[in-house]
Specification:
It is built from 14 helices and six strands. With 240 residues, the chain is α/β, with parallel strands linked by helices. The radius of gyration is 21 Å and the shape is globular.
Length: 240
Amino acid sequence: MSDPTEANNPVEPTPADGAGERHVRVVLVDDHRMFRTGVQAEIGRTEETGVEVVGEAADVDQAVTVITATRPEVVLLDVHLPGGGGVEVLRRCAPLMADADQPVRFLALSVSDAAEDVIGVIRGGARGYVTKTITGTDLVDSVFRVQEGDAVFSPRLAGFVLDAFASTDAPPVDEDMDRLTQREREVLRLIARGYAYKEIAKQLFISVKTVESHVSAVLRKLQLSNRHELTRWATARRLV
């Protein structure tokens, strides 16, 4: 005969060794499906990492819809997205970030390491910013730190934020930069760093023809003649 106390006092399951008792619900927002798939494979093994990926999105509208529906604890947010970029997602999700009982926190995860991108999303309400060179283990750790309310940055990027918020003066408006889209700025920086068109295409997951189109648009908007002038222009603004 079985012991009746066993039915009244069931044994609690033992958590997986890798994750312990930690658990965080995450939404991935990035316009590159292959990258989302890679992140999901790297950190989304819930029993090992404690990270549960509850949704994905490829643009601003999708992101707002998925985040609102799933109410994750942390959103991994790319800076450059169709529909207005990561800053627009943050703007539209501001009420969710301000929810005292169940706040949604954002961690920017981007290929860009430009100061204006970092400062823009932090001013928008993100709790941190890491680049896509981060390891899976460090990314998991960063997600849990953001869940707990910490601010997390890749080492080189922390200085941008400290410098920006240490100054009481708002940064001057650069009307020339404002003419460029976020993708054009990204291509501009890579061109200025000496990348070939094929290298830029590979890094940004776009075609060489698309790179050429962005470069032509940048030259036209800035009234420059060639990539050498473009490099000088970017260097003068410390974008390299």
